[in-house]
Amino acid sequence: MNRFSDRKTHSVPGFLLPLILFLVIFVFAFQGIVSISDTTAEKEMEGLEQTVYRDIVHCYASEGYYPMDIEYLKEHYGLVWNEERYWIDYQPIGSNLMPDVTVVKHGGGK
Asked: Left, alpha or beta for 98 (phi > 0: left; psi -120 to 50: alpha)?
């Protein structure tokens, strides 16, 4: 007759299972947010690079030469970006060759 014995069974407290479930859901949600943030940053960098190349081509089409520095694009073509977040490596090759442009996020990373 085990029903009347004084032995206690070891069971999981009632709050532990919901807590574990909450933590698992929280971790998955956090990973999703980080993934979306990384994707957005990559798209933002790609968009900035495309904008710089568009302005470079516009300059060449209107003036007959490629700009020698990024400051020229800022002054004459209205190029703006978050300079605290992104750095643009602008390497001119010559007045008749398209410059090499690389967008880099400050602090390393993507």
From this structure: beta
